[in-house]
Design brief:
By secondary structure, the protein is of the alpha+beta class. The chain is built from five helices and eleven strands. It folds into two domains: about 100 residues, Pseudouridine synthase I, catalytic domain, N-terminal subdomain (Alpha-Beta Plaits), CATH 3.30.70.580; about 110 residues. It is elongated.
């Protein structure tokens, strides 16, 4: 079952491992026929499309919950929402075939909404500069350490829309780009001091049949 859920702003500092434990506990309490691993210490077979960085809220996070027997999508949502901790909510569930690609394999990018506590007009020039250059070297942190990289390669779109920056990041073989790296670049290019901002991931993206970005939950399994 492909499950879309919300990780709201007040829970943004919950790390991925804690989130996984929270979901496992909720699934156990729900009584749903979830599939467990084999062996001495069985646990729920649970995978996430793209772990969310600490400090970022998520409106449409996605996990895969394999089931031992068939459950209707509406019934699955109702039973799991009944035992979800306060603030978290299942927003959709979709039955997928076992031959469906793994969610991590499908993940091709992420779409973010960034809302800083300054007038966005002050960053407009920096956005233009960043997009016009073919190379902007910045420090990027990964599990293997820190390295300088050309962050321009990871940026699909970056625009100012209303009171927010809309940032679509590409996933590359080398990984992904955190919104904090983009914001550090914009503050530097604009020559202003960094300020507080909130980040919300609006969607995890996959590539559709035409090689365009599309929310993962609507990508066809055909």
């Amino acid at each position: 079952m492909m499950v879309v859920f919300q990780k709201p702003y007040p829970l943004r500092h919950i790390g991925h491992l804690d989130l996984m434990r929270t979901m496992q506990r909720a699934l156990r309490r729900s009584g749903l026929p979830v599939r467990y691993t084999q062996g001495f210490n069985p646990h729920i077979r649970l995978s996430f499309a793209s772990p969310l960085s600490v400090g970022i809220a998520g409106e449409r996070e996605i996990m895969d919950v394999p089931l031992e027997s068939e459950v209707g999508e509406e019934a699955f949502m109702a039973e799991l929402n009944r035992v979800m901790p306060g603030g978290m909510k299942i927003v959709s569930a979709r039955a997928i075939d076992e031959k469906f690609p793994t969610l991590m394999k499908l993940a091709a990018g992420s779409r973010y909404r960034i809302e800083p506590e300054i007038e966005l007009a002050k960053l407009a020039g920096a956005v233009e500069k960043l997009l016009q250059t073919d190379e902007y070297m910045a420090l990027r942190k990964t599990k293997s350490g820190e390295n300088m990289c050309n962050i321009h390669l990871y940026i699909d779109t970056l625009i100012i829309s209303g009171k927010a920056l809309r940032f679509t990041a590409r996933n590359l073989h080398s990984g992904s780009l955190k919104p904090s790296v983009v914001m550090h670049a914009l503050f530097s290019l604009s020559g202003i001091e960094s300020c507080y901002y909130t980040v919300t991931r609006e969607a995890i993206l996959a590539k559709d049949a035409h090689d365009n970005f599309s929310p993962m939950e609507v990508v066809s399994d055909e």
